[in-house]
Amino acid sequence: xxxxxxxxxxxxxxxxxxxxxxxxxxxxxxxxxxxxxxxxxxxxxxxxxxxxxxxxxxxxxxxxxxxxxxxxxxxxxxxxxxxxxxxxxxxxxxxxxxxxxxxxxxxxxxxxxxxxxxxxxxxxxxxxxxxxxxxxxxxxxxxxxxxxxxxxxxxxxxxxxxxxxxxxxxxxxxxxxxxxxxxxxxxxxxxxxxxxxxxxxxxxxxxxxxxxxxxxxxxxxxxxxxxxxxxxxxxxxxxxxxxxxxxxxxxxxxxxxxxxxxxxxxxxxxxxxxxxxxxxxxxxxxxxxxxxxxxxxxxxxxxxxxxxxxxxxxxxxxxxxxxxxxxxxxxxxxxxxxxxxxxxxxxxxxxxxxxxxxxxxxxxxxxxxxxxxxxxxxxxxxxxxxxxxxxxxxxxxxxxxxxxxxxxxxxxxxxxxxxxxxxxxxxxxxxxxxxxxxxxxxxxxxxxxxxxxxxxxxxxxxxxxxxxxxxxxxxxxxxxxxxxxxxxxxxxxxxxxxxxxxxxxxxxxxxxxxxxxxxxxxxxxxxxxxxxxxxxxxxxxxxxxxxxxxxxxxxxxxxxxxxxxxxxxxxxxxxxxxxxxxxxxxxxxxxxxxxxxxxxxxxxxxxxxxxxxxxxxxxxxxxxxxxxxxxxxxxxxxxxxxxxxxxxxxxxx
Length: 653
Description:
This protein is of the alpha/beta class. Helix content is 54%, strand content 16%.
């Protein structure tokens, strides 16, 4: 910063300051201020802004510090600007390294002396620079041609060497700790760091070119875009970090050998509140929960990872501290939320896992988050390490599904459908089973929900329909007088716009007539107004394929769907029969349902029949009812099913 530099201009510094102001404003608008590294990033911006202002001030004051006026107020202001410039310059480099270490989780939960050791060099150099007006080791002002000209001292190299050492340390830690980031992110950030080093070097060797501040401002803007763009990582309601940040943080903490507690909290009754409350009121509820649980003891960070799920990272795995946290968490959720004089209770289930001992990798994280709400939960439930067994099982099943699709490990089991009126087996249902070389037989009740979540139902369905058509084409159904084969159709499959054409193509491949296929769909699939879903149903119906309505009597089942769509059968859920045996009221409701549906000519299948007593009750309620259940047979492999048909002689009433 010398008057002898005729090309020295402040336009770069003014530009840098303007860019930094925009960066600062964006940081506050984007949110994420609850995170320590974000606050450090803001401190870094402020330091560079102060350095820029000091550089501008020093340059503007150069022409005012004439020897004739002596060491007046302008001389003092200029010396103050230069002192502030170099001190904050050192602190900026320290903050940069501190920020990188915090961002990469190297410093998370470290002892206080780690911070002292990290900051000591910057503090020592800053104190020495405060003494510069006395000793002039770093810089001084020499009278030349009637003006005090800035001159570098013998020790000024320390002021540049220290930031370089800090910056190199930060870059090294960044390279070692960001393997979880995409490679193009890492390359871009390293380019920005290099860009800053070039700017510092240019200004050091050619002080006439004031480019250091603008290169630092550009680098900060780039880091803001690459590493601190919280708009896409912030829950818009609670302003907490979202699932993407949680996954990234867990990877970083595991990679840096941290031990911590992960707590996943599901609000099991939030969806009910979301339905009955206005959006702004349900949002208030979420904000209330977020603001309180983030302040509980030992909470390092809090995340909003789904519509009704929060995750917390605790900086401890100590049993006493964990119990302290559990007590505080339970006390909070036991207190109802008062919303406009309405008391809203919380029903939650929370999972506690010590990482990395009980959750070794973030790949299992989706199974923790994607847990459906439990409407039967009417309290506060805590789950521990044993829950990881369930998580691991889901991961194993998903891998078995993917392998099963490739290796064709899916098979069809057949369960007979009995006609009371004809006293014989008139049809059957094909039920998918997965036989894995390691896990053995996996039932559809276990693998179908996982396959639906993973988007694999179409591939499974292709194999199932192929096996079903192949069985029909074998002639066994005609031989034993079976009128049709029922096959389940998932609502997720209906979203496949090519589903109808694929099913019909498979039928044509095996020359299967449409009357032999009866597809089972749930009510949610039947009433789905999505274009692909409705179009598939129409095409299949037009091709002569019939449908059964599955699981009638549970959820939100109603009669209107029976008026809008024609079903070959309505399948009464097993829960209706079980409840009828336990309660007189439920028995009357069950009998009334059978009576009303049968009297409009609707064919019925009662699922879950296990005893002859059940059969006799149902026969009395509707002489034409169809029966499916273990009383006749469990689902059987094809050969065993054929043997069963050979041996079946009817029921003696």
